[in-house]
Amino acid sequence: MRHSPEELIELARQFYPPLGIYPYQPEYRETAEIRRLTERRQQAVASYLSWRSFLDRLGQRLPECGVANKVMYLAKVSEGACHAADIWLPTIAKEVGGHAMTFHVSFLAPYYVLHSGGFHWRDEIDSFGFRLSTPWEERFDLTPEEQPYAERLVQEIVATFPEYELMPPDIGYRIVPDLQHENRVPGAATIYDCLLNAHWIPRKQHG
Predict the structure, then answer these.
(1) What is the pLDDT of residues 71-103, one digit of tens each?
(2) Does residue 22 fall inside a structural domain?
(3) Buried (b) or exposed (e) across 140-157, using 16+ Cβ within 10 A?
(4) Which of 19, 20, 50, 176 is 20 to 30 A (C-alpha) from 162?
(5) What is the pTM of this model?
(6) CA-derived radius of gyration, the chain
(7) For residue 200, is it left (φ>0), alpha (ψ between -120 and 50) or beta?
(8) Per the domain annotation, does 200 fall within a domain?
(9) How far, rounded to the nearest angstrom, does the alpha carbon of residue 20 sit from its chain's CA centroid?
(10) 202 is a domain residue
(11) Hey, how many other C-beta atoms are within 10 angstroms of the C-beta on 181?
């Protein structure tokens, strides 16, 4: 990676104010950091059609998959810190249940994230007659069946965003203890939370 964890933490501090100013307070939105973040989000709204074109090209590269945009709101409203989409893998899902790869492309830093998720059908029926499934699970480690799809996805990401690199979990889960993220309790935000998205990236598993 071209940036050290310390450099990424310093970058995160540019977009979120220090502890002591809370998101529910009016002055939170008036801080220099949040004004800077808002400007980047507005730029993401302005470039939304470029993102849609990227997803169209990705659909052509992966014609057997479904490409689902996760940031349709960026067409009008500036939120989050990244573009994101799901890639549904029908050849796997047909056998085991719902299955997708999710990727996130930051508009605050030159990094992307890729992880997999899914559920498995169970041989049980509920009281309404619907087939039961296991809970949805997310992971960063890709299976051999997922790898070919991931390779084509990454090729398209790199071709469209040539300066971008994959941010691994050991970096992304680093805590940024001295800033106030809008969606995390004080001192709990990670680099992933700050530079990509606080909701869509799997939470770190303990133990």
Answers:
(1) 877 776 678 899 999 888 875 444 555 667 889
(2) yes
(3) eebeeebeebbeebeebb
(4) 176
(5) 0.84
(6) 18
(7) alpha
(8) no
(9) 27
(10) no
(11) 21
